[in-house]
Amino acid sequence: MSAPTDKNVSRPATRPATTIVAAGRRPEWTGTPGHPGAVVNPPVWRASTHLYPDMATLRAHPGNEDGHFYYGRRGAPTQWALAQALTELEPGAQHGGTVLYPSGVSAICGALMTVLRPGDTLLLTDNAYEPSRAMARGLLADLGIKTVWFDPMDSGAFAALCPGARAVLLEAPGSLTMEVPDMPALIGAAKAQGLAVLVDNTWASPLGFAPLAHGADISIMSLTKHVSGHSDVMMGSTTAGAQWYRPLRLKAQAMGLVVSPDDAAMMLRGLRTMGLRLEKASANALALAQWLSGRAEVAQVLCPMLPGSPGHAFWARDFTGGCGLFSFVLKGGTARARDALIDALSLFGIGYSFGGFESLATPVDPAAIRTASPWPRPREDGTREEADRFAVRLAIGLEDVADLMADLDNALAAWSAAR
Ligand SMILES: *Cc1c(COP(=O)(O)O)cnc(C)c1O
């Protein structure tokens, strides 16, 4: 389900904080013919069957675009409003649109299925979200698609891999280890060889990084994270310009993918406050990252917004925002001591997600899944300490940062006692 924006958008160009409030609220989706725009939000249109007034209307093909009633699998105004809002938020998507999927993973799958054919080669960043790696090893391999993994921090080596490849899937920063690569260099090298460039932009959202404006072809998001913001609904999206929007839409239709209007309404509700939540979570995260980097128990803090973190200079140059998700590496210790640290936290849930209003902590063990880049990764000064391999990923929420700091202080004491 998706919506183009090249029609019916009559607002003047606005800045992102304004766009996020106004986007997708077409008067015909938030009112009745006699009362256009009568309410603020589009109602939840629960509909599988769409009705036609007469045979002539049924026979006239309504066009394969959203904004046309046809059948439930093509969505109705609630889903169209969300898709259009996401398109309006994505710089560079003006003549394309957004396709919605039941999860972020299905959005990644939909994008890969759109750009790849049997016999093709995919380049995949070595620090990718683990289910993306699993998709390459399983689903794509079964279809005769080869995957080559690369170190995202080595733009020169990446450029040498591009000739002959069909597509690349990038992620910035990496899901667990948070390196920010030189995105313009990677995208430029891939486009010079004609690759389709896909970016998993879940960490930054379009408020923090604009993949299409940087030359990428498809911007992918797990809406489950920042857009939902409340840890209670799952969805994914792909947003693209004119070249890839229709192929993405047709592939999603071929796979029969739909999202429910109830979930779309939840996502629209979350979207309206996303900018505010990201600002607060980023400020909290940066304060905690700075504090952790001064702690004797901590070997390294991996937080894109923190000077000295891998790729911070690229973040400062290319990004317009951050979020609450970052990791830190403990100085030596054992896996058991790290478990003690996480168990000692009382304000952090233990769970695999981020972008909610509440804080979370999980253990990070990248060594087991890296194939093209080393872990522990060398520091900016070139040093690398093998013992410093146990890391923790924190998803920082909207709590008072002083309470989170006190909780972490207590947990570090538990780690020291257990190590
Ligand atoms: C969570 C996540 C996904 C998958 O999203 P789901 O909605 O959980 O399927 C994809 N990419 C990144 C970077 C994620 O963090």
From TrEMBL:
The gene is metC_2. It comes from Novosphingobium pituita. The lineage of its organism: Bacteria, Pseudomonadati, Pseudomonadota, Alphaproteobacteria, Sphingomonadales. InterPro entries: Cys/Met-Metab_PyrdxlP-dep_enz (IPR000277), Cys_b_lyase_bac (IPR006233), PyrdxlP-dep_Trfase (IPR015424), PyrdxlP-dep_Trfase_major (IPR015421), PyrdxlP-dep_Trfase_small (IPR015422). Keywords: Lyase, Pyridoxal phosphate. Belongs to the trans-sulfuration enzymes family. Its cofactor is pyridoxal 5'-phosphate. It comes from the Bacteria. Residues 1-37 are annotated as: Disordered. It catalyses: L,L-cystathionine + H2O = L-homocysteine + pyruvate + NH4(+). This is Cystathionine beta-lyase.
